[in-house]
Specification:
single chain, 249 residues, alpha+beta, 8 strands, 27% helix, disordered N terminus
Length: 249
């Protein structure tokens, strides 16, 4: 059988094809725009959530440190051989355990999360929290007792122009992503939960996590600097700090 196509039908076929192609094109545009908008919303959501995540984990770490100090000798009993409360030494290799003894001066390293009874606490970038503790307030060199009058703690936290917190016994820092020339290789050791089994590796060096701004280097106690969250990522500075005051212990 031979089908005959009228001129009217021949005229309509291309128009129908053009309509279908236009519909497909519009669908592709809608899908692309939707994907772009969702991607942008996801990035914005992450940017907004990151600072709040950092504040939350820093607060959790601070609460654990205060509890540790208060439980170290809660009744100042002579039975324990101690007559003071104290803070833990830092963790030097990132395995979560404090390294004792830690000298007579102030000490720095990873937060000893396991010694505090915590899971690893990480900032929004995935880095574990860092921890500085003053000489008079740490295990082995604490002055007895912490609940009585002590000289002011040695650490200060500054903003861009002035001291904002004095008498700081310990400082917790969410270091953020590495910036500028910072390198965090675990060599020549092997990776631990937070750092490297080799104490000398880049992974365990404060300078590869903390920055300098307004003439203050956060990798070197006793002065620290904290900037508002709104400007904290500017000029290669992304440290988020939280202090533990001596009178909070």
């Amino acid at each position: 059988m031979i089908w005959l196509i009228s001129g009217h039908q021949r005229h309509n076929l291309p128009r129908q094809q053009r309509g279908a192609a236009l519909l497909v094109f519009l669908m592709l545009v809608v899908v692309s725009v939707s994907g772009f908008l969702l991607s942008g919303m996801s990035r914005i959501s992450h940017q907004l959530a990151s600072p709040f995540h950092n504040v939350r984990v820093l607060g959790e770490a601070k609460n654990a440190l205060v509890a540790y100090a208060r439980l170290s000798d809660p009744d100042l009993s002579a039975d324990t051989g101690l007559n003071y409360r104290y803070l833990p030494c830092p963790d030097q290799d990132g395995d979560g355990l404090e390294e004792t003894p830690c000298g007579t001066a102030s000490a720095a390293g990873w937060l000893p999360w396991m010694s505090l009874g915590l899971a690893p606490l990480r900032d929004a970038s995935g880095a574990c929290l860092l921890y500085f503790v003053g000489a008079a307030y740490k295990q082995g060199t604490a002055t007895a007792p912490l609940i009585s009058a002590l000289p002011n703690a040695e650490f200060n936290i500054n903003n861009a122009s002035a001291v904002v917190s004095e008498d700081v016994a310990a400082v917790l820092i969410a270091p953020g992503k590495n910036v500028s020339s910072q390198s965090r290789s675990v060599a020549p050791g092997v990776a631990t939960e937070c750092g490297s089994s080799s104490l000398a590796s880049e992974k365990n060096q404060m300078a590869n996590y903390l920055e300098t701004t307004a003439g203050i280097n956060n990798a070197s106690a006793p002065e620290f600097i904290s900037l508002p969250l709104s400007v904290n990522s500017l000029s290669g500075f992304n440290d988020i700090l939280l202090g533990v005051l001596s009178n909070e212990l």
